[in-house]
C-alpha cells in the first residue's frame, strides 16, 4: 500500500471510526468482545456497503490485512486510554465527525473512479460516510445519529457536491481531498455548536 | 431507457415507494433531509438488495441517473402537496401497497431473466417487494410492516407463484405483469379491509 | 451436490438455524408466514452475507434449490412438532449453538478456499456464524444474542483460530471440521452453564 494522501485519509477515517465505535460500546457497558466487534463494524461498515454496492468484491478490508490489524490495535489503545480519551469533551462526537468527513470524500472519489455519474458519486459518498455510524447506533440500540437534528447527512452531501464541482474544474486532487474533508467536518461542528436546524414539514391533522 | 411496460412499472413502483417513504418520514417529524433520505432508501431498498444478491453490480440506480432525479422530484412534490396527499385516507398504505405489488413482479421477472429456479425467483420477488418498506420502518423506528397481521408477504408470494405459473404457460409478458401486480395489490387491500388473518401457532407453556 | 462432510455440515447448520428461527418466531407469536420468513432468513442470513462480501453471487441458496425446500420442510416440521421440540429445555439455545458452531467453520473454510488471509477468514467465519441470529433477533425485536454476556462471538473466533492453526499444520480436513465445530459448540455451552463472563471496561464518569 503506497502512502498517497488517499490512503492516509482512508487510514485516518478508519482510526477515527474504530475509536468512536469502541467508545460507544464502552458507554453501553458491553464486554471486551462487544467493544472489538462494534469498533470493527463501525470502522469497516461504510466501506463494506460501498464496495458491495459497486461490486468491488471481496470488499476492501478483506484484501488488505493492514486495516484489520490497525483497527484491532486502535481499539486496544482506546480501551487502555479510555479515561484519557473520554477526558476530551464530546470525544465520541469528534471522532465520529472526522470519520464522517473523510469517508464521505473517499466514497465520492471511488464513485468517480468507477465512472459513476457525479450525483450518484455524492450519494455513494454519503452512504460510505454515514453507514458505519448507523450500524454502530443500531447495534448499540440507539436512534441512529443520522436522524439527530444535527444535519449529519447534509454535511456529507454538501461536501460531496463541492468535491464533484472542484473535480470538474480540474483542481489538484490532494487539494480537493483536504478542502472537502474539512468542509464536512466544519459544517457538522458549526451546526452543532450554534444549534442550527433544518426546516420540518408537518402534515396537517384532519380529525 | 426504452418505454417498455417493464420500465413503466419500475418507474411507478419507485414513485409509489418514494411517496410512502416521504410520508412516513413526515409522520415521524424528521427534518427535510431525513425526508429525502427515507424516501430515497425506501424507493431503492428492494432493488438494491435484489441486485446485490444476484451480483448485478453496480446496482441498478447507480447506472441510471433518471431514477435518482425521479425520486428527488417525487419527494419534493410529496413535501409540497403533503396536506393534499394526506387527505386521501390511508394514503401511506395505498402507495406502499402499489410499490409492493409492482416491485414483487419486477423481482420475479429479474430472477427468471437470470435463469434462477422459479421458486427462488418468487423469493427474490418477495424480497424486492418488501425490503424497501422494512428499511423504512426500521429507520423510522417502527415495527416493520411486514410483520403486521396484514399478510403483507403472503400477497407477494402468492402473486409471485401466479407469475411463474403464467410464465411457464407461455402467456404474453405484459399481460403477466399487469395481472400479477393487480393480484398482489388486491390481496393486500382485501385482507386489510376484511381483517383476514393467518393462523398462529403457540408453543404450550410448561411451567 | 455430492455428500462430502462439508456439505453435510452445511445442511446440518442450515437445519439448526431454520429450527431456531421458527422457534423464535413462534415465541413472538408471529403468524404462519412470519414463522416461515424468520426461519428462512435465519437459515440463509450468514451465508448470504458471506457470499455477498466475497462476491460469490448469485448467493449460495439461489443456485441450490435443495436448501430452499430443506428449509421449508424443516420449518413445517418445527411447527407441527413445536410442543415436543420445546419440551427439550433451552432448545432454541441448543439449535442456535449448533448452527453457530457449524456455520463459523464453513465460513472460515470458504475464506481459505478464496485465498483470503487466515485472520480475515476467521472474521468471515464469525460473520457467517453470527449474522443469521443477529437478523433473527432484530426482526423479532430482541437485543441481538451476540451481545448477551454469553461470549457468543468469542466462541466463534476461538474456533476459527483453531481451524486456521490446524489447517496450517496440514491436518486432515474432515478432522478439522469436526474438531473445530465441536470446540465452538462446547465453549458456548460451558460458558453459559458456568456463567463465565468476559471483562468489562467502564469509562470513569467526570461530572
What does this structure look like?
Three copies of one chain form a homotrimer. By secondary structure, chain A is mainly alpha-helical. Chain A has one domain (5-193). Chain A is built from nine helices and no strands. In chain A, helix 1 (5-27) crosses helix 4, helix 1 runs antiparallel to helix 6 (91-113) and helix 2 (32-54) packs antiparallel against helix 7 (118-139). Chain A is globular. The N and C termini of chain A lie far apart (63 Å). The mean pLDDT of chain A is 83. Chains A and C meet through helix 1, helix 2, helix 3, helix 4 and helix 5 of A and helix 2, helix 7 and helix 8 of C. Chains A, B, C: It is a multi-pass membrane protein. Chains A, B, C: Keywords: Cell membrane, Membrane, Transmembrane, Transmembrane helix. Chains A, B, C: InterPro entries: Gly_transporter. Chains A, B, C: Residues 8-81, 94-167 form the Glycine transporter domain. Chains A, B, C: Belongs to the UPF0126 family.
Amino acid at each position: 500500500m503506497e502512502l498517497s494522501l488517499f490512503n492516509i485519509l482512508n487510514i485516518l477515517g478508519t482510526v477515527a471510526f474504530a475509536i468512536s465505535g469502541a467508545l460507544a460500546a464502552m458507554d453501553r457497558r458491553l464486554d471486551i468482545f462487544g467493544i472489538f466487534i462494534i469498533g470493527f463494524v463501525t470502522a469497516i461498515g461504510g466501506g463494506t456497503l460501498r464496495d458491495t454496492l459497486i461490486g468491488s468484491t471481496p470488499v476492501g478490508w478483506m484484501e488488505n490485512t493492514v486495516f484489520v490489524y490497525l483497527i484491532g490495535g486502535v481499539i486496544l489503545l482506546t480501551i487502555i486510554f479510555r479515561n484519557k480519551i473520554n477526558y476530551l469533551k464530546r470525544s465520541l462526537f469528534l471522532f465520529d465527525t472526522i470519520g464522517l468527513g473523510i469517508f464521505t470524500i473517499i466514497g465520492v472519489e471511488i464513485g468517480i473512479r468507477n465512472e459513476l455519474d457525479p450525483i450518484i458519486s455524492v450519494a455513494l459518498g454519503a452512504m460510505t460516510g454515514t453507514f458505519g455510524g448507523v450500524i454502530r447506533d443500531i447495534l448499540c440500540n440507539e436512534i441512529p445519529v443520522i436522524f439527530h437534528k444535527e444535519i449529519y447527512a447534509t454535511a456529507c452531501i454538501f461536501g460531496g457536491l463541492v468535491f464533484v464541482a472542484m473535480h470538474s474544474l480540474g483542481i489538484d486532487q490532494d487539494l480537493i481531498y483536504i478542502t472537502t474533508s474539512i468542509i464536512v467536518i466544519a459544517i457538522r461542528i458549526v451546526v452543532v455548536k450554534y444549534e442550527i436546524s433544518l426546516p420540518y414539514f408537518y402534515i396537517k391533522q384532519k380529525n
